[in-house]
Every structure is written in structure tokens, then in C-alpha cells.
Amino acid sequence: MNKNFKELKEQFKKTVIAHADKYQKWEFFSDFCKCTAISLYQPFRKDPELEKEYFAIESKYGKDIIKDVFATDLLPCILFALENDIGDFLGEVFMELELGNHYIGQFFTPFHISYTMALISGNFKKNNNEVESFIEPCMGSSCMILARAKVLKEQNINYSKYLEVQGVDISEICFYMSYIQLSLCGISAEVIHGDSLAGTIYKNWYTPVYIHNAYEKQIIEDRKNKFLNMFNILKDEFKEPSIKKNLVSNKVLVPSDSIENKTIYSKEQIEVFSMGRLF
């Protein structure tokens, strides 16, 4: 699909408007966002209640609309647009279709303003693999988060690894829009539908990259713990003189160029080497 961000946005809007004769624009758009967000989240958490919500939308529109319009026409527009250039695709569509009039008069910050704010917030300082983290208490469609990711990308920083965010919004449509865009952009985020002022959380979902990073961190932590346990066991064994003596007596020096480079191997290992095998 050789179209730029703006052209893909226009194509998306035309598709939504084309179905406005049968469904209201805000209804069609919000159902698409909910259906798509569930589809992106379900592989990581099989929730029967979410399945019911998905199939309720499917029964409302029919499988053909879900497959041929939601999945084939609309979703690729977002995917290719964000692949070409990070931006607030759904937020801009939302405003240009004038859907804010239905949703309590919402107004989203234009992306160029968020981008400017992200620029003046400073350069990322990579220090001991520490991540840049922040909380967006009123995320909307995640315009500010997307802008920061764009700035980091321009600084040749892998934002998927070094940026971690938590976004909150009281609006359910904002929750779904944010989850879609943050997931497709590969941003590590906890997306929360809740009230930041009251401290209420209705639901919280994690993006695929967040789950991947958490899993990777757990693997590293497990390996570190195994190594430390092994080290402690060996340290305790070497405290016993008899064990240390046996270990040393079973080792032989292998000839090398200099005495400093001589390597100690067990007799059993030497026998294995003589058979032409490494281990």
C-alpha cells in the first residue's frame, strides 16, 4: 500500500462515512476500535468476557463487515500509516470526523504540539540500560506518548526497549484507541481505563511489547539467580578442605604457549579430548 499518512487517513475516513447510511459514524468507529483492541489483546489473555463482547459486535454487523471492512479495509490503514510515520492517526480521524461532539465534547491535542513538547522535554540519556518512564494521567488517544516515541526514534533510540509508560483515561473509546496505536507502534505500555482523580481502575491492559519486555526481564532475573545459587554452592564446597583437595588432585595442566595461559582440565575431560570430542 504505497500511500502516505495523510492519504491513508483519508481512505480510513471515507470507509467509515460509506457506512454512515446504516450506522452512525461514532457507533461504527467505536465498535471498530473496541473489536480491534480486543483482537490485539486476546492472544495474551484469553478472557471469556472479552470474547462475548467481540462476538456481540460481530453479531451486530455480521462476519462480512468484521472481515472485509474492519480487518481488511480499516486496520491496514492504521498499520501502514504508523509504519510510515509515528503519529496520532486515530485521534486525528476522531477529530476530523467530528466524533468529539458525541463523546462529551472531547478535543485532542494536535500532534505537532505534542511533538514540540516532546522535543523540548530533552534528549534521552541512556544510563546502565535504565528506561525512560512516565505516566500520562489523561492520555486521550496517546498523542503525547506517540510524540515522545517519535522523538526517541529520531535520536536512534530503541523506544520499544527504553521507553515504558502508563496511560490512563476515563473515556472507554480513548482506552481502545490508545491500546491499538501503542500496540501497533511497539510501545511498552500499561493502558488503563480509569479515573485518575478518583484513583479508580475499570480495566488495565498491557501492550505486546510490554509483555515481551517483562518476560525477557524475568528470564534475565532467573538466569542471574541460578548463577548466584551455583556460585554460592561452589563457594560453600571450597570451604571444605577435603573437597578442595580432591578437586585439585583431579586436575591436570594442558600445555600452552606460556605458563600464564595454561588451562586446567580434569582427567576425564582430557580422555574425552583425546577421542576427538569437545565434551
Summarize the structure in words.
The protein is an alpha/beta fold and 279 residues long. It has two domains: 210 residues, no CATH class; 38 residues, no CATH class. It contains twelve helices and six strands. The chain has a four-stranded mixed sheet with strand order 1-2-3-4. Strands 5-6 form a two-stranded antiparallel ribbon. A hairpin with an 8-residue loop joins strand 5 and strand 6. The radius of gyration is 28 Å and the shape is globular. 29% of the residues are buried. The C terminus is likely disordered.
What descriptive keywords fit this protein?
single chain; alpha/beta; 2 domains; 4-stranded mixed sheet; two-stranded antiparallel sheet; 12 helices; 6 strands; disordered C terminus
SSE map:
Elements: H1 5-18, H2 25-41, H3 48-61, H4 63-84, H5 89-96, H6 111-120, E1 132-136, H7 143-154, H8 159-162, E2 163-169, H9 172-184, E3 188-195, E4 200-206, H10 208-238, H11 241-249, E5 251-254, E6 263-266, H12 267-274
Parallel strand pairs: 1-2, 2-3
Antiparallel strand pairs: 3-4, 5-6
Helix pairs in contact: 1-4, 1-5, 2-3, 2-9, 6-7
